[in-house]
């Protein structure tokens, strides 16, 4: 084996060292506890799924899928997201009662990277899916839970941007006339390339009024007042229905007392093509990309034979840890250094301390080459060396 492959990892894969692992574990446990308090139940799905089902339903670009063949020749994928696998489980095994499902997960997902750029190919998501509820109340509930989860984990400053896929699609198709032309303009929103968007609009064969409507669209960011401005731009009932849903969402978030965390951004577009209605992203000032996102996906379950509404969100745990300030300080840990004569005593002391919640390392003195290094590594050192009564 060459030295390169002995120490290198596949593109986008990462090792998680003890400090980061512990930090992620604390954050994960806090969020999971909050989700459970809101009545969401955790499930697990396989890391491998069939390409023809979850792979094609996931809305992740085909070139980002990790594919392999099983012994029967079926194409498998490493799950690229969690929403599609949970939709599969819900449609096949859980949606048998006329009651909404509240499901949660914490799992790694896999998306292949084409070039090195610091982006992970394997990363952990923790999130929820509310399945079987068409009401805007469900959208408001998951947003309120998102806010509550971030507070629970100790993130002091964050903002949620909310848009509506239906509003953008309706406005663009109404003005541009064809889906192809609408998608060409939408691409600039995906990339958040607003300079390119403006240049594209200026070169379109449209009336000056319609061009101005498309340029004014970029200004639709802010508080509740944005919905009134948007109503002046849209000209059909489908678009106004989208705005009505956003107004309902605002009132629900106000009822939760969380309106200070929510801003409207009607230019918001998700790369996940299965979203059909309200969409949102959550940002922290410490991270340049969203630390979480979500929205409504009322058509996804139809791909698995069930027609029902659904909404949810996912947090990117690594980005959340970055927003929290990175790896936290190490928790206090005691090391008991013992000699052969006092082994039993050391084991007894360690057991007693662990029983009251302390973290304790047992270390045979014969296995330590540098006592000073050992002393620097642990918060406290207990020496049980030599005959009883002689050690400290």
From TrEMBL:
Compartments, as annotated in UniProt: Cytoplasm
Nucleus recorded as keyword: no
PROSITE patterns, per the entry: AA_TRNA_LIGASE_II
Pathway(s) of this molecule: Amino-acid biosynthesis; L-histidine biosynthesis; L-histidine from 5-phospho-alpha-D-ribose 1-diphosphate: step 1/9
Note: This function is generally fulfilled by the C-terminal part of HisG, which is missing in some bacteria such as this one.
Described purpose of this protein according to its UniProt entry: Required for the first step of histidine biosynthesis. May allow the feedback regulation of ATP phosphoribosyltransferase activity by histidine.
Protein name listed in UniProt: ATP phosphoribosyltransferase regulatory subunit
Organism of this sequence: Robertmurraya beringensis
Gene label: hisZ
């Amino acid at each position: 084996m060459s030295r390169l492959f002995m120490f290198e990892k596949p593109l986008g894969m990462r090792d998680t060292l003890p400090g980061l692992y512990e930090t992620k574990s604390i954050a994960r446990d806090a969020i999971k506890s909050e989700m459970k308090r809101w009545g969401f139940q955790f499930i697990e799905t396989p890391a491998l799924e069939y390409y023809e089902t979850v792979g094609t339903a996931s809305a992740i670009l085909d070139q980002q899928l990790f594919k392999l063949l099983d012994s029967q020749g079926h194409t498998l994928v490493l799950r690229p997201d969690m929403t599609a696998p949970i939709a599969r489980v819900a449609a096949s095994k859980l949606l048998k009662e006329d009651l909404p499902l509240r499901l949660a997960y914490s799992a790694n997902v896999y998306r292949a990277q084409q070039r090195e750029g610091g982006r992970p190919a394997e990363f952990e998501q923790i999130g929820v899916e509310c399945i079987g509820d068409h009401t805007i109340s469900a959208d408001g509930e998951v947003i309120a839970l998102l806010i509550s989860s971030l507070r629970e984990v100790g993130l002091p400053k964050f903002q949620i941007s909310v848009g509506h896929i239906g509003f953008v699609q309706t406005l663009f198709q109404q003005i541009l006339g064809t889906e192809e032309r609408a998608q060409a303009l939408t691409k600039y929103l995906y990339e958040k390339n607003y300079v390119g968007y403006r240049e594209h609009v200026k070169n379109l064969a449209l009336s000056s009024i319609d061009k101005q409507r498309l340029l004014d669209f970029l200004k639709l960011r802010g508080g509740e007042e944005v919905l009134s401005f948007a109503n002046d731009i849209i000209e059909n009932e489908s678009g106004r229905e989208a705005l009505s849903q956003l107004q309902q969402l605002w009132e629900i978030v106000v009822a939760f007392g969380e309106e200070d965390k929510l801003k409207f951004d009607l230019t918001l577009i998700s790369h996940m093509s299965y979203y059909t209605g309200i969409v949102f992203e959550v940002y922290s000032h410490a991270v340049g990309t969203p630390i979480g996102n979500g929205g409504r996906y009322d058509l996804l379950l139809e791909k698995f034979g069930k027609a029902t509404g659904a909404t949810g969100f996912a947090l990117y745990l690594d980005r959340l840890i970055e927003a929290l300030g990175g790896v936290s300080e190490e928790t206090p840990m005691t090391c008991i250094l013992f000699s052969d004569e006092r082994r039993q005593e050391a084991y007894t002391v360690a057991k007693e301390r662990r029983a009251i919640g302390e973290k304790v390392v047992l270390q045979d003195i014969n296995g330590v080459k540098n006592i000073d290094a050992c002393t620097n590594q642990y918060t406290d050192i207990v020496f049980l060396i030599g005959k009883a009564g002689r050690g400290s």
